[in-house]
Amino acid sequence: MPQTVLSDSQLTGLLKKGDEGAFNEIYRRFWKKVYNESYKRLRDTDLSEDLVQDVFSDLWLKRFDRDIENLGAYLITATRYQVYLVYKKNNKQPYFEKPLDNIADVTVACDSLYELNDLKDCISQWMSLQPIKRREVFRLKFIEDKSTKEISEFLNISQKTVQNQFTTSLHSLRSTLSKLLLLLSLFIIL
Questions:
Q1: Residue 84 lies in a domain
Q2: Which residue among 38, 55, 90 closes a domain?
Q3: Fewest beta carbons less than 10 Å away: which of 4, 125, 136, 166?
Q4: Same structural domain, 110 and 60
C-alpha cells in the first residue's frame, strides 16, 4: 500500500495536535536544512548539532502555542535565533556584528531614558504617517502583543493581509530608524 506524503501544513496541523509521527517526519525533512543553516554561521559541528536539537526540542515543547504557517521559514528563523543566542552566550559574534556593540555601548552611556523617550516619539511619529490598517496591525502586534490570527479576526481581514501589512511596516520602520541612527551618529562624530 503506497504511503501518502503529507504537506508541511498538514504536518504542522498534526504536530499542533501532539502527533509524534508528524514531529518525526518534520525532523526527517528539515534536520539537514537546520543543521546547514547553523553550521554556515557557527562553523562548529558540535554546536550545530546541539542547535538542531534545541530547535526541534523547542518546536515540540511549544507545539500547542505556535501558529506556524510556513514550516520551513519558521525553522530557519528559529535556527537563526538560536545562533544569535549562541553568539550572545559565548560573546563570540561574527566580525560584521561587532561594530553594532560599540553603537549600543555609546547609547547606554548617554542619557538612556531621554533617548528611549526620543525613540518612542520617533516610532509614534512614524506610526502616524502609516496607512490606518497598517498602523492598526502594527499597534496590535507590538503594543498589544496579539497573534496574527487574533489580529485577523479582530480587523476582519485575512491572516495573509495581516502578515503583509506587518512585514511592510517592519521594513518601513527599519528603514526610518536606520536613517535616524545614521543621522545621530553623524551628529556624535561632529
A1: yes
A2: 90
A3: 4
A4: no
Question: CA geometry: angle at 23 spanning 16 and 76, to 5°?
Answer: 90
Domain stop point among 90, 108, 137: 90
Q: What are phi and psi of 129, to 5 degrees?
A: -90, -10
Length of the chain: 190
Angle at 160 between CA 151 and CA 135, to 5 degrees: 50
Give residue for cell 504536518. Answer: 11
Query: Which runs of consecutive H residues, i.e. helices, occur in 91-158?
Result: 98-109, 112-128, 132-138, 148-155
pLDDT grade for 69, boundaries at 50, 70 and 90 = confident
pLDDT tens figures, 29-62: 999 999 999 999 888 899 999 999 999 999 999 9
Identify whether 2 is part of a domain. no
How many Å separate Cα 90 from the centre of its chain? 21
Domain range for residue 176? 98-189
